[in-house]
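During the reporting period the student researcher (J.K.) took over the structure-prediction task from the postdoctoral fellow and processed the backlog of single-chain submissions. One of the processed entries is reproduced below for the supervisory committee.
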Amino acid sequence: MALDVGSAEVARVLRDVARLGQFFEIGVGPGGPGWEPFPGAATRFGAMTRDYAERLRTREKRVAGSLVFQGLAARIWSPVVAAGSRGIVPDLGGLRWYWAPGEAIAFRLDEPSGWRADDAAEAAALIHPMVVDGLLKPLRDVLSTIVGLAEGLVWGNAAAALAGSLNVGAPDPARRAVVRELLAREPLAAAGAFGPDGYVRRSCCLYYRVPGGGMCGDCSLLKRDVRPEI
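J.K. obtained the following structure tokens:
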């Protein structure tokens, strides 16, 4: 589909959704040294996984790798879904990112552009292949050269990151509608479901193995009502 939204309008929407919080931020304009296309080479992910393991005080590389994937997935889903719920889906094909030990992850688009979406289904149809096939599968492939992560865990993390984006900001029916449309598509549909107590995943992100970590609110290991929401 041809791009039909120009730089100024996409930049405006990105600035608007960034007000929701750090996980919703995508900068605009050229970056300096250290910025590279996402996901890029494995070297940075190796350093990031080691850094996460040290900060989490775990010797299990797969635990750190799992949380690296989930954190990055959250940073990708959150802004594009929020923008899509406002009728504009940014093109993330040129997404660039920056990270260094001790510094926050940052994303940016050199020259933003995008598409108009009239409803949640149209937004999800644009977002799903762009994020799942264009960004998360390449991220999974790069991380697989560093640490082994089961497919169920990977897509459970992706789905949990997507559902978890709704926990930031005021309740937003438009944003929730886009999230539900995305979660109905594979490989996310098999990863979990909304129930009376919120989203429940079918796999575990391994956070419970972090010293003092406990269980996440959407953890499949918690005993609760997991009947699908009607």
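The committee noted the following: The longest strand covers residues 106-109.
J.K. will present the remaining backlog at the next meeting.
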